[in-house]
Specification:
252 residues, alpha/beta, 8-stranded mixed β-sheet, 8 strands, 39% helix
Length: 252
């Protein structure tokens, strides 16, 4: 290849990579289970540096996960990972969330919390221990008021996070959060991972997407795997010529 063409090719490749490199962050993935493992690998694929937060960062299992996730990945305590990261992805059971968030609220100030958790909702499971009246997303925002909580991926299976093509078509990730810039950043990341996104309002509406997650797990709970599904919202279906004044609740 002539030197002039090679130079042009290198320049074009570098230009294409600059947006990813410029927007790459350090991400603390709190949790090393199936979802944490899946989302950690996807963050690395999209140019981010991952730190796993774990109760046992030196264990053989976590060491193997660090190696499998990719270059630059490390593991440490959850508190240390949160302190070093710009985005914190919560991929742990909701029952373990409150203590973690409250203990690290100061370190979470001005950071984005990528909230994948689902709380048991009292409206759906009134007799379940630990059921809440609002949602995991709203509670996490209350426990860390200076952080920017964005609910995402809580309606998607870990296997689809790892490989969206397994769904056989588009998968939509609803996003809820109070901070528009944080929600936009998470939308960009999720789209880079191969998903569509839908703005599902502020964090008040996290209870809706957590209810969607409850619906998602019904086929799995009854072992009816033939009925398993993934969410896909079709955009662009509003009535032609509709105005805001004609929409119920538009001013709420």
């Amino acid at each position: 290849m002539p030197m002039k063409c090679l130079t042009a090719l290198v320049t074009a490749v570098a230009a294409a990579m600059l947006p990813m490199l410029a927007s790459a962050e350090i991400v603390a993935v709190i949790g090393t289970g199936r979802m944490g493992s899946a989302v950690g690998a996807r963050f690395v694929e999209t140019g981010h540096t991952v730190i796993y937060g774990s109760r046992a960062p030196e264990s053989d299992r976590v060491r193997q996960l660090v190696t499998a996730t990719g270059e630059g990945t490390t593991a440490m305590s959850s508190a240390a990972a949160i302190a070093r990261a710009e985005i914190i992805a919560l991929a742990l059971p909701f029952s373990a969330t409150e203590a973690l968030i409250r203990a690290n609220a100061a370190q979470l100030a001005d950071k984005i919390i990528f909230d994948i958790t689902n709380a048991p909702l009292r409206a759906l499971s009134p007799d379940r221990a630990g059921a809440v009246d609002s949602s995991a997303g709203q509670l996490i925002q209350a426990w860390a008021p200076a952080a920017h909580v964005v609910k995402a991926f809580n309606t998607v299976g870990y296997h689809i996070v790892a490989d969206p093509s397994l769904a056989g078509g588009p998968v939509t990730v609803p996003l809820s959060g109070n901070d528009a810039a944080a929600k936009q950043r998470i939308a960009e990341i999720v789209q880079a991972m191969g998903f569509e996104t839908a703005d599902s309002g502020d964090i008040r509406f996290a209870h809706v997407t957590e209810g969607m997650a409850s619906l998602y797990f019904i086929p799995y709970g009854r072992r009816d795997f033939e009925e398993a599904f993934e969410y896909y919202f079709r955009k662009g279906t509003a009535p032609p010529g509709v105005t805001a004044s004609q929409v119920r609740g538009a001013d709420e």
